[in-house]
Specification:
Structural class: alpha/beta
Low-confidence stretches: none
CATH architecture of the largest domain: 4-Layer Sandwich
Largest sheet: 6 strands, mixed
Number of helices: 12
Strand order of the largest sheet: 1-12-2-3-4-5
CATH superfamily of the largest domain: Metallo-dependent phosphatases
Distance between the termini: 45 Å
Number of domains: 2
Order of helices and strands: HHHHHHEEHEHEHEEEHEHEHEEE
Number of strands: 12
């Protein structure tokens, strides 16, 4: 699927670039310099694309994102302009030489992406309140959910540590990290700093972590192995769960699932346990919290009778219109927020950061605070 997504993005970027050259030619400064020489108009109109290309040498993904947004906004601007001219019965000939459509498009797109960048780099707090008939330690539980830090994208290891100070101020009973802690671009130094920051959290019952699809790396290009990542986490008192269960005071189960992509990894001999397998020996009268990075197994998780399933992975849809498109394609059972199926509550966070992309136009960066009141 990723092959088709990336291939489609490349094709759209090429088409978008050609379209933008035709739009840039309409600016008065281009016509003033080039006159009626079409070849020179085209050459001057390509100058902004050279800027995209240079930026793309350092930030390929974000350069493509900006180019696609600009092309899309310009297409909308052209359609609006065409409709206005049809309604007002003006051809546009003899009008002002100022290319108002282009100016407005550039301003609107710049503001739109600036808001998206703010949403990506500014981490908000999202709260949920849940109730249960089951017993909880001291009758209540405060769970803080974090996911998708992809350390090195919008913040480094030191920046991650600063956010952990905000989470510490929430006075959590449990901190759960639902995968994609690091990425292929995360340096060893940032990984170590982030592990120390995560392990420094003072909680009532501990910090629990399950892998995401990026945590173990794809290209073996990092300065550390998956085993070294796990060692660093466990040395900092973070409990790593991969199809494993931990009991808290004989009242709460924390169930950490193996990432659903683990079996697809090269040379992987692991097979993810089903929810039926992982819960069959558990006392169903206890409150059960599941960590599952990808929100893709809702039917089985609801059927197993667990109480709460916490996920990330989707980045809340990341960019408009990826959220609705993902739902239509059935890529995930949910994209963002809270959903209840039978007696199971599902919560998907948009994550505290991003993979490579510096913009969130369809959502925001966040950490989640869940207050559960028991019997």
């Amino acid at each position: 699927m990723w092959f088709f997504i990336l291939g489609g993005a490349v094709v759209m970027a090429i088409v978008g670039a050609i379209y933008l050259v035709s739009r840039f030619r309409r600016f008065g400064i281009v016509r003033a310099v080039a006159g009626e020489r079409v070849w020179l108009q085209r050459l001057l109109a390509c100058i902004p694309l050279v800027g995209f290309a240079v930026y793309g040498l350092f930030e390929t993904v974000n350069a493509v994102i900006i180019l696609l947004h600009l092309a899309a906004f310009w297409l909308i601007g052209d359609l609006v302009t065409m409709i206005v001219r049809k309604v007002t019965k003006k051809s546009g000939e003899g009008q002002s030489r100022v290319y108002w459509t282009g100016i407005i498009v550039l301003l609107v797109c710049a503001v739109y992406l600036a808001i998206g960048r703010y949403n990506a780099f500014h981490v908000d707090r999202t709260g949920y309140e849940l109730t249960t008939d089951k017993s909880l330690p001291n009758g209540k539980l405060r769970v803080v959910l974090i996911a998708d830090s992809h350390v090195g994208t919008t913040f480094d290891g030191a920046g991650f540590a600063e956010y952990m100070q905000k989470i510490q101020a929430e006075h959590p009973d449990i901190v759960i990290f639902a995968g994609d802690f690091v990425d292929d671009s995360t340096t060893r130094e940032d990984m170590i700093a982030a592990c120390r920051a995560l392990g420094s959290l003072q909680t009532t019952y501990g910090v629990f972590y399950s892998y995401g699809n990026h945590d173990k790396g794809y290209y073996n290009s990092r300065g550390y192995t998956p085993e070294e990542l796990e060692t660093e986490l466990t040395n900092n008192s973070v409990t790593v769960l991969e199809d494993e269960v931990v009991s808290i005071l004989d009242e709460v189960y924390i169930i950490g699932r193996m990432d659903r992509n683990e079996g697809e990894r090269k040379n992987s001999s692991k097979k993810r346990m089903s929810m039926e397998e992982i819960t069959k020996e558990l006392d169903k009268s206890r409150y059960m919290i599941v960590i599952d990075h990808q929100p893709n197994d809702y039917a089985a998780e609801a059927a197993s009778g667990v109480d709460l399933v916490l996920s990330g992975h989707t980045h809340g849809g990341q960019l408009i219109p990826l959220g609705p498109v993902g739902r239509l394609m059935g890529a995930n059972d949910a994209v963002y927020g809270k959903e209840i199926r039978d007696n199971t509550t599902f919560i998907v966070t948009s994550g505290i950061s991003d993979w490579e992309i510096d913009y969130k136009t369809g959502t925001k960066s966040e950490y989640v605070v869940i207050d559960i009141v028991g019997h």
